[in-house]
Write a structure and sequence with these properties.
Layout (H helix, E strand, L loop, with lengths): L4 H8 L3 H8 L7 H13 L5 H10 L2 E9 L3 H15 L4 E9 L3 H10 L6 E4 L5 H12 L4 E4 L10 E3 L3 H16 L5 E7 L5 H17 L3 E8 L4 H14 L3 E6 L4 H10 L7 E5 L3 H9 L4 E4 L2 H17 L11 E3 L8
Parallel strand pairs: 1-2, 1-3, 3-4, 4-5, 6-7, 6-8, 8-9, 9-10
Antiparallel strand pairs: 10-11
Helix pairs in contact: 1-2, 1-3, 5-13, 6-7, 8-9, 10-11
């Protein structure tokens, strides 16, 4: 006699309703419970082998990562690492949602659309009311969220995966100040992707505090937002150098290093301006080697991808886990790591 749902429920130690949800691939069941039910159904002969394999494929943990599109090489590297690390874990179904990165309404709509569809979300999020409300809606539906690279406070989330951005800004200020020294008045400038990212705002804050506290001979003459776009960064930098041909230092808070470096080289200022930026990419590596960039503060996208997946997966499964956040690393020409 063929086993029934009641038999599976009794053997697996769950309710018949839970068995029904699992066998019909509905939401609302922990992955550990789902696997236990499927294993019991297989053991009792309720599922044939081909159907069992189909169910287990359908029962993968779906994770969605919402990332900004554009020319930001760090984001591209992070996306690649997320996909690569998800591929080697057979129980995961990872989807990438690439959106226009500086439109909070687009981001909010994308997050709302994931309610009832996904089991976990990683997001590089703008700190905006519509985005915070969308994150709250996801959380209320039972979907854990991790913020990546830039955090948002006062919203439910399973964790923040990224560096301490305020500390990163202070570190950049300290590096630039030590390179340029005290005793002589010098001009420096800032570039940012967008201060609507809390992470960029925190880096600026940390940088300004260190300059004010320890390097008062340095005068911040401009802050330009370049929306993490290479071409826009190039154009803003070229215009800046015309206005301030005596500029001594640059701190780039976000992406766009390639554009700024190109502009520095074209006007012949690459060897005289101290340039501190973020993220070790192929372009920043080349600029380190030829002296256009003096120091890069890196946060390791491979580690961020690994930790984001780990936090989401273990939270969904209800398992305890150790969190190993990425660390700040300063890279100079002499200590470029192997790829």
């Amino acid at each position: 006699m063929r086993s029934t749902l009641m038999d599976i429920a009794r053997e697996a130690g769950v309710s018949p309703a839970t068995v029904d949800r699992v066998l019909n691939n509905r939401q609302g069941v922990r992955e550990r419970t789902r696997h236990a039910v499927l294993e019991t159904a297989r053991k009792l002969g309720y599922l044939t082998a081909p159907f069992s394999e189909t169910m287990e494929t359908a029962g993968k943990i779906r994770l969605d990562f919402v990332l900004p599109a554009g020319t930001n090489t760090f984001i591209a590297n992070l996306l690649t690492q997320i996909v690569n690390q998800g591929t080697i874990q057979e129980d995961l179904d990872i989807r990438i949602q690439s959106i226009e990165g500086f439109n909070p309404d687009t981001l909010a709509r994308t997050l709302h659309a994931l309610v009832g569809v996904t089991q976990g979300v990683g997001v590089i999020a703008l700190d905006h009311p519509t985005v915070r409300e969308a994150m709250r809606a996801l959380s209320l539906s039972g979907v854990p969220i991790v913020t990546l690279a830039s955090d948002i406070l006062h919203v439910p989330r399973a964790g923040y995966i990224g560096i301490d951005n305020r500390a990163a800004g202070r570190l950049a200020g300290y590096l630039l100040g030590r390179f340029l020294g005290n005793g002589t008045k010098r001009k420096i400038a800032l570039f940012a992707g967008s201060l609507s990212y809390r992470g960029h705002e925190e880096r600026e804050m940390g940088f300004r505090h260190v300059i004010t506290e320890e390097f008062r001979d340095l005068d911040i003459v401009e802050l330009r937002e370049v929306r993490d776009d290479r071409q826009r960064a190039y154009e803003e930098a070229a215009a800046l150098f015309k206005r301030h041909p005596d500029l001594s230092g640059i701190y780039n808070i976000g992406a766009g290093n390639a554009g700024i470096g190109q502009a520095l080289q074209e006007v012949g200022m690459a060897s005289t301006v101290i340039f501190v930026g973020h993220e070790l990419t192929e372009s920043t590596k080349r600029f380190l080697l030829d002296g256009t960039i003096d120091a890069v503060i890196d946060q390791n996208p491979r580690v961020e991808a690994r930790e984001a997946i780990s936090v989401l997966k273990n939270t969904i499964l209800g398992r305890k886990f150790e969190h190993h956040p990425p660390r700040l690393q300063v890279i100079f020409r002499e200590n470029i790591p192997e790829s």
